[in-house]
Amino acid sequence: MLKQKHLKNIRIISAILVLALFVCGFTNILGTALIHRAGHLQFVPALLAATTGLVVPLVGLLVVSLLFGRVYCSFLCPTGILQDAVGRMDRLFRKKKMKFRTEKPHTIARYTILGATVIAWIVGFNAVLTLLDPYGAFGRVGANILRPIAAAGNNLLALIFNAFGDYTFYTIDVQIVSVASLVVAIVTLAVIVPLALRRGRYYCNVICPVGTLLGLISKVSLFKIRVDETACNKCLLCATKCKSGCIDSKSGVIDYSRCVACYNCIPVCNSKALKVQWAFKKSSAKNASAVDTSKREALATGLAVAMTATLSACTSKATAAPKEAHELPIMPPGAADSKHFLAHCTACHLCVAKCPSQCIKPAFLEYGWAGVLQPTMKYSVGSYCNYGCMVCMDTCPTGALRPMPLSEKRKLQIGVAVFDPTHCVVSTSGTDCGACSEHCPTQAVHMVPYKDGLRIPQVDESLCVGCGGCQSICPVRPTTAIVVKGVAVQKHLNIAQEEQAEEEVVSDFGF
Amino acid sequence: MKHYNFLRAIALVGMAGVLSWQPIAKAAAADDAAKPVDLVAVMGGEPKGMLLKALEPLGGIGNFVKKGQVVVLKPNIGWDKTPELAANANPDLVGALVALCLQAGAKEVQVFDHTCDDWNKCYNNSGIRKAVEAAGGKMLPGNDKSYYKKVDLPQGVKLKTTLIHEAILNCDVWINIPVLKHHGGAKLSCAMKNLMGIVWDRQYFHVHDLQQCIADLCSLEKKPVLNVVDAYRAMKANGPQGRNQNDVVTLKTLIVSPDIVAADAAALTFFNQIPSVNLPESEVGHIYNAHQLQLGNKNLKDLNIKRIKM
Do A149 and A255 have their domain in common? Predict the structure, then answer.
């Protein structure tokens, strides 16, 4: 039988693995397959994926929570683990003893935030969930802060190795993903780190809507940490070690809605009074409902409903306004349409971090306020959607980008190239160019006779997949002569399968 | 004495001219055979076999690669395409050349291209990484500006300076391995066009007269010692990427020359042998421009060409 004091160690091992996995995933040290699967075990991605039909991860997480409470928060959530890691490092270097105080439940605040998030999500204003999802928050830190740092580190290694003629490491482009997303990532860290240093899991118990939601389940979970009153000598050492501050320092009562199941309290108890037990076993343990909070919660939820209804009424007007075709942002492949995409993306920026061409960038207001920070395609020099690449679709854990076979992706129109002949080198300089056609994988952009033996590009929209190869290579800058515009709905082009022509034969050199 | 000899020589040559004096005519023919071979064209074999055949009249690989040298091969690996689509140089050919260079005593054989598509995908899906590494060569990255160094091109008309990959600048000798292709912009993609894969900023070319810039780039002081034109499979239309197999024609041909202009002129003539191709020399401006810069000879009739059918 597993000794209960080892629960903490199991939690620590899991946390280290998960954190390492996500750090390596978002810094591109790791490939796509593993991080994609790990992403499925994150609560918000699992919730969003469930709405596309993939319910297993969500059901799994809910069942685990119903059994053991908020284990997600301590075992799986990268933002939660990051806070633990920050606290642990601090204590390690400052040789300071861990001592936490009992926190107030902040009932109104946390249920308001949860209510607002849920309602905003239901009415289609996804930005609140996007900003508060702890997995997404970690992802943005990873993609916007850790990845550039890792890239710089890689380049340092490349510099050293290449000097010795070894090309195991090669130089890669270090770039800031976008100013807006970098600011959001920095603010996220600026809020989480100081709180983690001083107040443990304060963020998780006041702000994080996932924590609050799982807290509701945790209240009725089947296995809980229970205090054996006969053994407890009220030293309350456990309360000072509780990162959540959920053990009342006077009564020793545990508030299960805020317990993140870190199991730190179990081994510290000298009287072995704390144990994970079947919640309905008769014993002298007290339950958390010393104060009846149900009225407060009802009030808070009501407030949240009223608040978000107003908010959503404003925003739904804004999002409902049909945009003109040229204003449409280009969505990454597999996004289907903006409704599906915006409703399922949690802006974790895993696709942003993984895109080998670095052409996926977080939007600012291109999708409106509801789609702040959600990924969009930005084509620039050397940066476009590779015809044979499916990394973003393969890696997306929420189902916002739906995977498809490569043969289908190659027919998927995510945008349409628009050519402006008056801007083109061939007409302005009277010299050959054809760079756009050269880069067009479907020859939607093809060269037609112009004058003086010159040829000029022409676009066949029925063949254009909107990859941006043409735009990325067009030498006319800053505004290129060929620009890809977004489409409202990504559709599969009806490209007829060409019959295999008979091969021509050559039998002489001709010289 | 000297004057006397000179006059006698004139008299002899004059006599020979008038009388077509047989011994002298024979001597002249023998002289022609001893003249170095400018270009070799081979048809009908597999890439490796044709390469060996082509190098024979040129004195073998040892004529170009010496013991202890660092050799760079620059195949066309521009696109994320499989070998049968002929968008990139033939991997068997590149692999065979790596092996030959190492046999000739090369210290190291490095292979790279500044690709158009994602470079790792290009290196892998072209089959070239596998072939090169199997033969003992080394693939170098060409994806980042930091690998490129500024070089002046004093002979250049429109392109006076550009950034060239350091592998080219640091090696002892390098060999150019283009694949014969139609090209939407340059009209023909062959030996000269393939040099655009050693530079960082290709956009400059496209804005400042592509056909002249390609020729200007070939005035680079450190020229390839050999141009090995892969025409095992050629892309006859929709180049340089091609749409599908229908753009590819199997020609089983290899053209090798130390003269980059001659290689392209021969390749163009050969390209026009494909029944559906009609590409006048006047449209492929870079060949003419390079000839004008005296970077090589486009007039095939002036060259000593070896033609081999296998």
Answer: yes
Q: Which residues contact B170 (CB under 8 A, 6 or more apart)?
A: B70
The answer, yes or no, to whether ipTM is higher than 0.85 is no
Topology of the domain comprising B37-309 = Rossmann fold (3.40.50)
Interface test with B, best of A174, A390, A431, A498 (most B CBs within 10 A): A431
Sole residue written with tokens 């290579």: A473
Using omega within 30 degrees of 0 as the cis cutoff, is the peptide bond preceding A333 cis?
Answer: no
* Coil/strand/helix, residue A277: strand
Total domain count, chain A:
2
What CATH number is associated with residue A472? 3.30.70.20
Q: Which residue has the tokens 């997480």?
A: A61
Same domain for A274 and A374, yes or no, is: no
Q: Distance from B251 to chain A by nearest Cα, in Å?
A: 6
Task: Give the residue carrying structure tokens 């204590």.
Answer: A91
Convert the pLDDT of each residue in A170-223 to its tens digit: 888 888 889 999 999 999 999 999 999 989 999 999 999 999 999 999 999 999
Statement to judge: residues A350 and A265 lie in one domain: no
Longest Cα–Cα distance of chain A, Å, equals 104
Pick the range with the lowest mean pLDDT from A131-140, A301-310, A500-509.
A301-310
**Mean pLDDT throughout A31-43?**
89
pLDDT digits (tens, 9 = 90+) for B138-197: 999 998 899 999 999 999 999 999 999 999 999 999 999 999 999 988 999 999 999 999
Q: What is the pTM of this model?
A: 0.84
Contact A475 B246 (CB under 8 A): no
**Cβ contact B117–A508 (<8 Å):** no
What domain range is A465 assigned to?
325-492
For A498, the closest of B43, B143, B244 (CB atoms) is: B244
Question: Quick one: CA torsion of B46, B52, B53, B58, rounded to 10 degrees?
Answer: 140
Q: Is A433 on the interface with B (CB under 8 A)?
A: yes
**H-only helix segments in A264-420:** 265-268, 294-320, 338-344, 350-354, 391-395, 406-409
Contacts of B266 in chain A (CB under 8 A): 509, 511
Of the partner residues A381, A473, A503, the one whose CB lies closest to the CB of residue B250: A503
Same domain assignment for residues A340 and A243: no
- Provide the pLDDT confidence category of residue B18 given band limits of 50, 70 and 90: very low
CB nearest A509 (choices: B43, B183, B239)? B43
CA distance B66 to B56: 16
Pairwise CA distance, residues A461 & A458, whole Å: 10
Q: H/E element holding B111?
A: strand B108-111
Coil, strand, or helix at residue A184?
Answer: helix
Sign of the alpha-carbon dihedral angle for B118, B120, B122, B125: negative
> Cβ–Cβ of B185/A432 closer than 8 Å?
yes
A442, B243: Cβ pair inside 8 Å? yes
Q: Is residue A510 part of a domain?
A: no
The closest CB to that of A504, out of B208, B272, B274, belongs to: B274
Q: How many CA atoms lie within 13 A of A55 on its CB side?
A: 4
Q: What is the DSSP letter of A224?
A: E
A413 phi/psi in degrees, rounded to 5: -90, 110
Residue to test with chain B: of A383, A437, A438, A456, most B Cβ within 10 A: A438
List pLDDT tens digits, range B199-228.
Answer: 999 999 999 999 999 999 999 999 999 999
Out of A278, A297, A314, a domain closes at A278
